[in-house]
Amino acid sequence: MSLGYYAEIKNGKIQYKKSKYEKYRRTNEEREKNIKNNPHEVIEYINYKINFDYSLAQYMFFSIVFIVIFLLIIIHPIIFIVVEISLIVLSLITYAIYGSGRPRIMYILDEESYTDLERLYDSFEELQHCQKIRHIISSKRNYDYKYHAGAGFLVDSRTIKIGYEKPKYIKTNMTRVPYIKLKSRIIYFFPDQLMIFENRRYEAIPYNNLHINLQNKDWIEDGNVPIDATIIGYRWQHPNIDGSPDLRFRYNPKLPILNCREIEIIGDRIEETLQFSNKDIGTNLYNEFTKYSQKYT
């Protein structure tokens, strides 16, 4: 039986249902108890299962490699093949016993909570259709005004994707879950909490420990200008202090200044900054997330 929990969301409250489950290394006495599933314990089990499956896949891969190598050099091929096939069969049996069945996270929502959740999830659609979304990885002050179009800060960013999908390694009855795919992590917005997948591990953060900041910022574009962007001015790539072009540089194009939307997701163990080429989006997400996080705790 795979581990999991049922979250019942109604009347502005989130309650976790009781169920019997098996857990790796749990004593027989504990297995016989009908106890309340702890979401944090479920996350621990999910992380254990991810690493278990990954280790098993590695073992099976190297086992097959060894078979091929020994077949090529013809050193006792029959005996070696028998041993390796036995090990692979044993691995499959072990996986069937301990690794089969994805952890379950199921939700029971009343009509009101379902409507509120749909409003929150729908607010991600306008973000999904934005022409350019970038994740701010780091920034540092620019002390050389003549380079980088006189920008005050140099930003290390990466173009990212926002959409809907079912999370990795988890079985859920939610048909769609909004996600933000960053460089090394994926952020999932579950009905009861935020879940971050990074380095083959999940981490859960309650919504009441999160808040979203919304503001507009200027963005100097040195590539193609997105069609939904608003150009508010231009700067020379190599300017003088008065803003005129520095004639010492033969290649000195004008770069457009875009007014973009910046959304910050800040909370316990998370601080991410996203910038969107469309300056008018994000307000709906801010309003719906604020109402949802305050109502459902």
UniProtKB/TrEMBL annotation:
Key words, A-Z: Membrane, Transmembrane, Transmembrane helix
**Positions of transmembrane segments:** 56-75, 81-98
Question: Per its record, how is this protein called by name?
Answer: DUF3137 domain-containing protein
Which source organism? Methanimicrococcus hongohii
